[in-house]
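User: I'm putting together a teaching handout on how multi-component assemblies are represented. Below are the sequence lines for each component of a complex, exactly as they appear in our records. Could you produce the 3D structure of the whole assembly as structure tokens, so the students can see both representations side by side? Please keep the chain order the same as the input.
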Amino acid sequence: MSVKESLSSVWRVALTALPMIVGILLLVSLLNPVFQKYYPSVFSGSYFWDPLLGALAGSIAFGIPVTSYIVGGELLQKGVSLVAITAFILAWATVGLAMLPIEINFFGKKFAFLRNGLNFINSIIIAVLTVIILNLS
Amino acid sequence: MSEKKISVAWKFLSAVGLIYGLVLVFNQELALEAWGDFVATLGRVLPMVGIVFGLMFFINLFLKQATIKKHLGRDSGIKGWIYTVIGSIFVVGPPYVLMPMLSELRNQGMKTSLTAVFLSNRSVQPVYLPVMASYFGWKYTLLVSFFIISFSILSGLIVSKIIKE
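Assistant: Of course. Below is the structure of the complete assembly, with chains in the same order as your input.
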């Protein structure tokens, strides 16, 4: 590709990506403060419900992974179980309900729903496996 | 990138703007808190967006479609999976920033399954791991990282079975 063709290609992608990114950041900034205050009160220590709720919370919440570690660390100090926090951290980075519009736009509905669904299930399985192995060792 | 996709993106932004307008009318405090959070996040994200667009420019300029197809395409084999896992670990950035770049790579021949692997590996990034270890310990961090990489490959394999390349 020539310089002009490459610039033109990037510009066309930017025309779609920038409004999507700004829209998603606006949406997430609005949703996060609403959901965050409920996180510490819904976890009971169950190996079934905690990772499920953790993954759900992580799917709604959103941001760079390092933010999820800080939020997770704070929740751990407030008594939330490690299995819930692990699912929360993993779903935070790999499942994005708010990101679905941009993912569908770039890769199609089938891919977006399949990938997010798989990562949601993976978050729960990895959380349970990690905590079981840590408890055994 | 089709005109339809561009139009959908702007419609989405307009719809979110409308939601903000409504929240501002009914709950000014929440709207202002959210706006402050948005401005701070945007400030952190914009430099990454610039880097990604820069990367896309150079990918278009220097990487030939045939090269991408060879290393990340249908016939890339095990090497394609290894390159993708390594790339996903070392390319830092949230998924929504990287999606345009991955979409461009896919248009040039990258396999769908490898796109899934890349997007499933966003938690394993060397720059962030010390922070995770400081909260949860190195044993936990290494174990979780191992599982994330393993399950991202599993996700890629499932995607390759369900979505035809």
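A couple of points students might notice: The CA atoms of residues 147 and 153 of chain B lie 10 Å apart. The longest helix of chain B spans residues 28-62.
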